[in-house]
C-alpha cells in the first residue's frame, strides 16, 4: 500500500492538487470556526429545496461541506490506488479522480463563502 501511495503521489500534478485540496479544506474549517459566533444558529444550506424553513439547518451542519469534500478526496484516492498500474505508470485515471476532488473542494468553498457572506 505504501509503495502504491508513493507511485500515485509521485506525479507532481497529483501531489499538488491533493495538497491544495487539503489546504482548501483546512481553510473551510477555519472559516467556519472563526465565523461561528457571528452567524445565526440556523443558516440556509439546502438551496435546492423550497424557499423558507426547509432550507435552514443548524449552523453546525456547515461542517458537512469540508467533510463531504474530504471524504470524496479519500474515496477517489482509494479508487486510484486500486486501479493504478505501477508498471504502466498511467496517471490518467489518478489525475482525473484528483481533479474531480479538487473541483468538489472549490465548489464547496464557493458555497460556504456565499453562506457565510450573508451574515457578515
Which features would summarize this protein structure in a list?
120 residues, mainly alpha, two-stranded antiparallel sheet, 4 helices, 2 strands, 64% helix
What would you note in describing this structure?
This protein is mainly alpha-helical and 120 residues long. The chain has one domain (2-117). Helices cover 64% and strands 5% of the residues. A two-stranded antiparallel sheet has the order 1-2. Helix 3 runs antiparallel to helix 4 (92-117). The radius of gyration is 17 Å and the shape is elongated. It starts with a helix and ends with a helix. The model has no long low-confidence stretch (mean pLDDT 86).
Short précis:
This protein has 120 residues and is mainly α. The protein is built from 4 helices and 2 strands.
How are the strands of the biggest sheet laid out side by side? Answer: 1-2
Total DSSP E strands: 2
Largest sheet: 2 strands, antiparallel
- How much of the sequence lies in strands comes to 5-15%
- Provide a count of the helices: 4
| Shape designation | elongated
List low-pLDDT spans: none
Structural class designation? mainly alpha
Helix content: 55-70%
Rg from alpha-carbon coordinates: 17 Å
Span between N and C termini?
Answer: 45 Å
Helix-strand string: HHEEHH
Number of domains: 1
pLDDT averaged residue by residue: 86
Amino acid at each position: 500500500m505504501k509503495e502504491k501511495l508513493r507511485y500515485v503521489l509521485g506525479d507532481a500534478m497529483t501531489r499538488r492538487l491533493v495538497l491544495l485540496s487539503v489546504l482548501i479544506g483546512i481553510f473551510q474549517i477555519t472559516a467556519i470556526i472563526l465565523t461561528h459566533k457571528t452567524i445565526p444558529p440556523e443558516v440556509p444550506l439546502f438551496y435546492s429545496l423550497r424557499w423558507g424553513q426547509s432550507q435552514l439547518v443548524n449552523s453546525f451542519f456547515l461542517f458537512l461541506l469540508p467533510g463531504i469534500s474530504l471524504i470524496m478526496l479519500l474515496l477517489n484516492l482509494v479508487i486510484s490506488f486500486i486501479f493504478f498500474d505501477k508498471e504502466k505508470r498511467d496517471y490518467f485515471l489518478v489525475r482525473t479522480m484528483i481533479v474531480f476532488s479538487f473541483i468538489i473542494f472549490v465548489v464547496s468553498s464557493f458555497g460556504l463563502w456565499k453562506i457565510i457572506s450573508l451574515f457578515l
